[in-house]
Design a protein that fits this description.
395 residues, alpha/beta, 8-stranded mixed sheet, 14 strands, globular, Carbohydrate kinase, kinase
């Protein structure tokens, strides 16, 4: 997590002694991402292409978990990790590097980590992935421990583990039977699939944010997303939203979705985002920030993380959209999904820089004036560059 701008907690004014220790809970597969950048074109069959840049980082659900943690939210992730070097690297990067709570995650003996190779060129990306579905979690015994599952490959990861996997002896909730109590949870919705933990989280007070992917069945039926009924917000992209609502306009799609969920947020790519509050009828539109995109990997995850942050902080709808769009725009200027997620240091540096640039539209600057109440008066100079982790360096 960024430490250049310490002490920024977007929820500080709202925290109370009896609040959940976890701000956001999420689950899903963790990939090792290997990213190549600086390609002039797509690889051509029968030739070798050299990239000018390369990095590696945890990917998959780790993109969103990292983005949330870097924005100061206490983030808990339940995921399966391979017991290979890739899995060990991803676990350490998330737990030690980003401060993400992995007490509900486990290492699967004999299972190798999924891998994605991402190639960024011409403002887009092409990905090749390999992996096998993780085995179902082992049954839980009477002590609350999972037989055979390990926190970091050395001890059980479900009986009150500490950060390094050492058991404390205290019983801890076991996922998926018992998700942690949290302010919010992020669910990946899929046609015909219901995850019991989503209903449990919502019943325990979590605001559920529903993310969705392409419907491979081609039905595009909202009724086929059973967990949508538990969602506070639904965040499809424009194409997905129009297909689900049988409309030909993203804004019309957002209004139609707001009849099904309290908050409908439709991302519009280069045109920004549009949202409708179904409870009040309030709508907000925010244009995208023009940037030179290096790698769009994980930008959608960063957008969701920014919107969740603003929602939990109880910001106005337009401010949430603007903040989400800003974090996504900053992320595409670096490569790698979790590597590129901005923290408050990057946000502060951008805000300091943008106000000194000539010919800025005053109305556009006003859109981000809410940052003044969040950020320190001074910040490190732009641009900030993160270290590029890779596998194999020895300390």
């Amino acid at each position: 997590m960024s430490t250049d701008t310490p002490g920024i907690d977007p929820l500080e004014a709202l925290r109370a002694p009896r609040d959940p220790a976890c701000d956001v809970f999420l689950t899903g597969p963790v990939f090792l991402d290997i990213i190549f950048t600086g390609l002039d074109s797509a690889p051509v069959r029968g030739t070798e292409s050299w990239a000018r840049g390369m990095g590696s980082s945890p990917g998959g659900v780790a993109n969103m978990a990292t983005a949330l943690a870097r924005l100061g939210l206490h983030t808990s992730l339940a995921a399966a990790f391979g017991d290979d070097h890739y899995g060990e690297y991803c676990w350490d990067a998330l737990e030690q590097g980003e401060g993400i709570d992995l007490s509900m995650s486990h290492t699967v003996p004999g299972w190798h980590s999924p891998v994605t190779v991402s190639m960024a060129y011409e403002g887009e990306r092409t990905m090749v992935s390999h992996g096998h579905e993780a085995p179902a979690p082992a049954p839980v015994d009477g002590t609350g421990s999972r037989a055979g599952a390990t926190g970091t490959g050395t001890s059980t990861g479900t009986t009150g583990t500490t950060g390094n996997g050492t058991s404390t002896g205290a019983a801890a909730p076991v996922f998926p039977q018992c998700p942690p109590r949290a302010r919010a949870a992020i669910a990946s919705l899929a046609p015909g699939r219901s995850e019991p933990w989503v209903a449990t989280a919502a019943r325990d007070g979590a605001l559920v944010f529903g993310d969705v992917g392409w419907d491979e069945t081609g039905r595009w039926d909202l009724d086929a997303l059973p967990d949508l009924a538990h969602c506070e917000a639904f965040l499809p992209n424009a194409e997905e939203a129009m297909r689900y609502t049988r409309t030909d306009c993203p804004r019309a799609a957002a209004h139609a979705l707001a009849e099904r969920v309290p908050l409908a947020v439709v991302t519009l790519g280069a045109e920004g985002a549009y949202a409708v509050d179904g409870r009040t009828g309030t709508a907000a539109a925010v244009p995208a920030i023009e940037v030179e995109a290096l790698d769009p990997t994980g930008a959608g995850d960063v957008f969701v993380a920014g919107f969740v942050t603003g929602t939990l902080a109880d910001w106005p709808l337009a401010d949430r959209l603007a903040f989400a769009g800003l974090t996504a725009a900053l992320s595409v200027q670096e490569f790698g999904g979790s590597l590129s997620a901005p923290g408050w240091a990057e946000i502060a540096a951008w805000w300091q820089l943008i106000r000194t640039c000539d010919r800025q539209d005053p109305a556009a600057l006003e859109r981000y004036a809410f940052l003044d109440d969040l950020l320190p008066a001074t910040a490190r100079a732009w641009p900030l560059r993160r270290a590029v982790p890779t596998i194999g360096f020895r300390q």
